[in-house]
Amino acid sequence: MTRRQHFVIILILGTLSTISPFSIDMYLPSFPAIAKDLRTSISQVQLSLTAYLVGISVGQILYGPLLDRYGRKLPLYAGLVIYILASVGCAVSTSIETLILMRLLQALGGCVGLVAAQALVRDIFPVTEIAQVFSLLILVVAVSPMIAPTVGGYATVAFGWHSIFLILAAITVLILVSIYYVLPDGKQPDASLSLRPKAVLSSFLTVLKQPQFLTYAVASGVATSAPFAYISGSPDVFMNIYKVSERQYGWIFAFLAIALIAPTQLNRIFLKRFNSEQIIYTTLIYQSVVGLLLVLGTWAGWYGQYGLIIMLFLFLCGQGLTGPNASALSLAPFVRHTGSAAALMGSFRMGFGAVVSGAVSVLHNHTAIPMVGMMTFCVVSGLLILLFGQRAIRYRREQAGIDEPFTEAIL
Fold this sequence. Notes:
By secondary structure, this protein is mainly alpha-helical. The chain has a single domain, classed as MFS general substrate transporter like domains (Growth Hormone, Chain: A), CATH 1.20.1250.20. It is 81% helix and 0% strand. The protein contains 19 helices and no strands. The protein has helices at 3-17, 19-25, 31-37, 42-70, 73-91, 96-110, 112-124, 130-159, 162-181, 197-208, 211-223, 226-241, 246-270, 276-300, 305-316, 319-331, 338-362, 369-400, 406-410. The chain is globular, with a radius of gyration of 20 Å. The relative contact order is 0.16.
């Protein structure tokens, strides 16, 4: 594979992975406008975000077996067409109930991009390069929080909130065309894999029996759901409590997105000296400490608007390190069931994200405590799950008589 091909493939996989982040981030500045237009509250509009996260969680489980059975592209085409139609449905919604339903359908279609992109990374690149490729993918994905809210804020002011969903539909059409003409097919269809419920459940069970997968998929799923607490709560915190405008909120969100981008590149450097297991462990300890300071300071009133932004920045820096390393460790043991493994991993993350997003809405009390409290809860819980899971991994390694460091033995 030439350098140019390598770059183009990662770029396409990155844009494919940005469909859901764009769908989440772009409409955040329009929460007040949607609430006003549909005659509802911001907390009700937040439920449209929760519905999207639920749709992603459920949809990824459905697409996993389909990607293994029919290859990567056919399910991709079907899912993206559903997403485009649902996006138009969001744009013409006249009630919050309709918007919530359309967002659910939009997620069920668009989530195929998340599963397929991860499965294709496993198909196309050597196992030893997966963590670095995921770091590059996240670099592309991380650009979306910088662009999406800013574009969404300006689009809301200039054309109304409905235009955001038409923009999303147009972007996805372009991605669909690039997939058809440029992206490699990846793993070919496997007719031996049955789509009967018993066979599908058996495939998922095979994946879940792997301690390495279960530990890193669940620990990272809980830990990386922390940004969803931030995403769900930040429109209310900044636009209602601190009274910033839609455009200002977009710029604040864009600034905080830098915290997701820089560490992904540091990860490539760290991987030359440390293994993925060490990086995840250290990162979760760091985030837990910052999170506890964030909660304590918010409760005590230490931070104003700018202090809160700085602390959020410090906290979010850890996300760019946990995600790619956990993905690499989770998928490394699999070849035949890669689609199912990627689906379960993504489902865990988005499922936890939906719960966290809903919790922020339910706990809404006109302060930043629900947002920062759930963020901290996620990373502390992820650290505890990691510690317990690593015991099972070490036990399995000892039983197999493997003396090498775990990550080196697998990768």
